[in-house]
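batch_manifest entry 22 of 60
target: LRRNT domain-containing protein
source organism: Capitella teleta
requested by: lab member K.T.
priority: normal
notes from requester: please return tokens only, no post-processing; we will run our own comparison against the previous entry in this batch. if the run fails, retry once and flag.
--- input ---
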Amino acid sequence: RGLTEVPEGIPVDATEIYLHHNSITTIGPNDFSKFTYLSYLWLNNNNISIIHKDAFLKSSTLTTLELHFNYFRKIDDDAFSGLINLHSLYLYHNELEEMPIFRISTLEVLYLSGNEIRTIPDGALDGLVQLKTLRLSISKFESLLNLRSSTLESLT
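--- output ---
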């Protein structure tokens, strides 16, 4: 508790990293690049507002990423590149004003509830060919006209 950045000294063979409930503000380009077995990462309940575009470039084993209750206003479309095995992404209760265009073909669960998102840009979900669950409740949508997905089983 009380960490302001990702600490050094985490074993490189870690499969799960718990860094929730700290004061981390940024996810840098090399913060998680050395963890070749990492499958689950908890970064929720921090003060994160910036994800470097290469932050997860070498995180191909990550399957679950928890980033809820942080301070994201915008996430670059490339922020999650490298997450080729990600199944679950939790971004609820941030301050996102626009939905990123996700290019994660393995993603099955996406939580975006409780953000400031008003519209979904064309193509935002096109790359989510495995998406089954999408949570958008408590958002400020003006329109969901651009929401298209052939695999979606649950939308709330």
